[in-house]
Amino acid sequence: RAATLARQDVRYQLHAYTNAVQHQGIGPCIMDRGHGIHVYDTGGKEYIEGMSGLWSVAVGFSEPRLAQVAYEQMQRLPFYHTFSHKSNVPSIELAEKLIGLTGGRMAQAFFTNSGSEANDTIVKMVWYYNNALGRPDKKKIIARQRGYHGVTVASASLTGLAGNHRSFDLPLPRILHTRCPHWYREGLPGETEAAFAERLAAELEALILAEGPETVAAFIGEPVMGAGGVVVPPEAYWPKMQAVCRKYDVLVIADEVITGFGRTGRMFASELYGIEPDFMTLSKQLTSSYQPLAAVLMNERVASVITRHSGELGTFGHGYTASGHPVAAAVALENIRIIEERGLVDNAAAAGAVLQRRLRELGDHPLVGEVRGVGLIAAVELVADKAGRAPFDPPGRAGAQVVRRAQDNGLILRGIQDSVAFCPPLIITEAQVETLADRFARSLEEEAARLP
Ligand code: PLP
């Protein structure tokens, strides 16, 4: 059966990021069931899911309470929309809950089905906001190289990865990219992290001035970059970037699609870095990906303008059939309850400390250039030449090899060029982190033994 499914998968399904399955002949690796932090493929092999699927399954792969609330909500009211004056109970309760979790710093929520749609919505809201304020030229949005914000037309434009632009005629005009806060790769010789942060803020200011502050509307970033390679910014980075934005009346958007709901050991990474966003993007751990759901949170400054303008000048002409879907919202509420009841944010800090320590112990390994991370998100960057920080040629192969060996050793990780990413479920125990780290260390050794 496993072999037949693999053939049918390649024959009938176009995979996202097809290159491995369709062109390199790797896989497909077809998962059949889950239990806790583990998933099992159609051949019955067990893996620790060291990436929580796609950075998203906080409560593990077998949470019965989420199945139960979905079932009950489907029986009670399987669907109702939130267009115009219509609403449904779970979406109201979820919006209130999310605003409460921000300590009231945000004022209103708008629901979408995916992180990409949420960021597209924010792009439109930023434009709408400035139209409402009579500033039709203030529309440019600055994102970052290697940032990831999704793949729809606007969100892919915000994304700063060539693979998401190439052959798609993106990015759209009016979307710009500034430098990624990766000190190990982007820092100058002898430059401290603090000086690096200072330089990046100066570069942002120079870009705003070159474009004209009257044309720059917003700045977007992930507090900790995920898909770009788990880039943890220097401590001074966010306060300095934010100060530049405030100086030129540029809105700040924190894309917390990966970092939200405890990943870094805080409920939101904005708290960790002192970010006071005008918009927040949430998804993934919002429902532990048991249901597709994302949310845009906006603060009073933005919400009041959008509400007033749509009242005075016509509707806010935006919304999805499934915006505020009651089943997804019910699952999100129960998922957040579980995160709170079981202290999973604190667990991310405690188990995360073990993960960070174990990975940093590999820092002296000749293949390891940098270990970075915070809480339960981390990356180990492999290098061809440790002293000179030289990457492998071709880039990506060593990372992919270690990830393949880890998979053979019962551990799912993700290669991002030659960085190996870690993002296990928030329910992981400290003992399970030790097992995960042992399997990774063994995979790294096996690869080191093969390299000349
Ligand atoms: N923003 C960030 C930070 C992400 O990591 C992702 C997905 O990985 C997205 C947005 C896009 O979310 P989706 O894949 O649900 O469209």
TrEMBL record:
It comes from the Bacteria. Keywords: Aminotransferase, Pyridoxal phosphate, Transferase. The keyword Flavoprotein does not apply. PROSITE patterns: AA_TRANSFER_CLASS_3 (PS00600). InterPro entries: Aminotrans_3 (IPR005814), Aminotrans_3_PPA_site (IPR049704), PyrdxlP-dep_Trfase (IPR015424), PyrdxlP-dep_Trfase_major (IPR015421), PyrdxlP-dep_Trfase_small (IPR015422). GO terms for molecular function: adenosylmethionine-8-amino-7-oxononanoate transaminase activity; pyridoxal phosphate binding. It is an enzyme of class 2 (transferase). Its EC number is 2.6.1.62. Its cofactor is pyridoxal 5'-phosphate. The keyword Transferase applies. Pfam families: Aminotran_3. One of its GO terms (biological process) is biotin biosynthetic process. Belongs to the class-III pyridoxal-phosphate-dependent aminotransferase family. This is Adenosylmethionine-8-amino-7-oxononanoate aminotransferase.
